[in-house]
Amino acid sequence: MSLNLDPRIVRALWPRAPQTKIDKICAMSAATFAEFGYKTWDEVAELMGNISHENGAGTIVRESGAYREEQINKIFGPARSSAKVTPEEARQLAALPVSQRGPALFERVYNLPNSPKLAKDLGNHEPGDGWKYRGGGDLQLTGRAAYEKIGKLTGYPQIIDNPDLLENLEISFK
How buried is 136 (Cβ within 10 angstroms: 0-12 exposed, 13-18 middle, 19+ buried)? Predict the structure, then answer.
């Protein structure tokens, strides 16, 4: 039995996703599911549910970090994250221009020296790793270690050096 995604069903799940993305993942779905050992529609449904949540129903390729103060507090505040961003830090980060906010936020929450536990868990240890290895791809990989592991698993080890390759629809879905 071939597990092949139907573009009409994916369109219904992802109403704002680019049609090219839907067409590409549907075209490669059967081969990709077979390659990674998916054997049942229940497994596919679980995977697609996770992907749909992580990539904003097909609309997010790389995490931007353009969060409002409330979102920063909710996601990275002391009650939710070992990064323990304070309300004052959230206010300061949210006040930055969008082009600076993402890099500043992800360096703060995903990297040393401010988030040693999370940086260690993610495998981030170099300056810039927080931003470079922010959420990316359909599953929103986060952290140097995840990029390295998934790069090897999927046959795209070059994503560790060039995470923007996750903007490629095939690489992103795999």
Answer: buried
Q: How many Å apart are CA 92 and CA 86, to the nearest integer?
A: 10
The model's pTM is 0.91
SS3 138: coil
DSSP 24-53: HHHHHHHHHHHHTT--SHHHHHHHHHHHHH
Q: Write the pLDDT tens digit of every residue in 112-164.
A: 999 999 999 999 999 999 999 999 999 999 999 999 999 999 999 999 999 99
Torsions phi, psi of 102, nearest 5?
-60, -55
Residue ranges in the chain assigned as alpha helix (H): 7-13, 19-35, 41-54, 69-76, 87-95, 98-110, 116-122, 129-132, 144-154, 169-173
Length of the chain: 174
